[in-house]
Design goal:
With about 140 residues, this protein is of the alpha+beta class. Helix content is about 50%, strand content about 15%. It comes from Acidianus brierleyi.
Length: about 140
């Protein structure tokens, strides 16, 4: 069974990936080509990417991934922690996951869905104790 990979290119227009099982193409800081297929097929069509991520082994720092507009990976990193958490931490992580999902939808010009996801995130944040708000803002780096 083919595996899932994300190939990262500089911002480019991708016109033709015939014969490649593409899940999604996302653009922000990079052009991300999300596939369930062999990366070699994309490389043959577009050349060597900046880097390739095997989605079975997503690693990294949430903040770094978020700032690099790698929202899908940031979401996955948080989801592992969210599954193990409970209480306020679980709500906090869920809000961050929803923000990542909202950014993905926004970049795909799905504004209504993005807005709903952000509303859900803000609703979760509003349920958190007020003393966690500075932590929330500092942690995602809004003051940096």
């Amino acid at each position: 069974m083919p595996k899932r990979y994300i190939l990262f290119y500089p911002l480019i227009d991708v016109k033709d990936l015939n014969g490649v099982n593409v899940i999604d193409i996302r653009k922000c800081k990079f052009t991300e080509i999300d596939i369930i297929d062999s990366p070699d097929k994309v490389i043959k069509l577009l050349g060597i990417p900046l880097f390739i991520v095997d989605t079975d082994n997503i690693q990294g720092d949430f903040k770094k991934l978020f700032y690099e507009c790698r929202f899908w990976e940031a979401h996955e990193v948080l989801e592992r922690e969210w599954k193990k958490s409970s209480g306020e931490l679980k709500k906090y992580l869920q809000a961050l996951i929803l923000i990542c999902a909202a950014m993905i939808k926004f970049l795909k010009n799905q504004i209504d869905i993005s807005d709903k996801l952000l509303q859900n995130a803000l609703s979760l944040i509003s349920e958190l104790p007020k003393d966690l708000f500075p932590f929330f803002y500092v942690d995602i780096g809004l003051y940096s």
